[in-house]
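in:
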């Protein structure tokens, strides 16, 4: 783990894992399918690849693709997986 893209994408992926595990052991039926976690996981891998390639080859287009991919993963996670849903309930 040498680049900012490595750190950011691994942190997002770790967050996805925590959300999935927390929801899978919770009371009641699971809120979402494991398949809903596939797009952001693949998005993290692809964004990391583009970001690292852009840094290695000084290619601004790849850097932008990597950054846009990370933003897309965060937007998807916020609107589809809804990580803050249920906070504040007792």
């Amino acid at each position: 783990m040498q680049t900012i893209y490595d750190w950011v994408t691994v942190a997002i992926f770790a967050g996805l894992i925590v959300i999935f595990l927390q929801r899978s052991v919770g009371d009641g039926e699971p809120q979402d399918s494991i398949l809903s976690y596939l797009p952001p996981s693949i998005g993290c891998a692809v964004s990391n690849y583009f970001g690292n390639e852009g840094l290695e080859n000084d290619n601004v287009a790849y850097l932008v693709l990597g950054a846009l991919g990370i933003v897309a993963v965060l937007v998807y996670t916020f609107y589809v997986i809804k990580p803050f849903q249920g906070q504040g309930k007792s």
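note: The radius of gyration is 15 Å.
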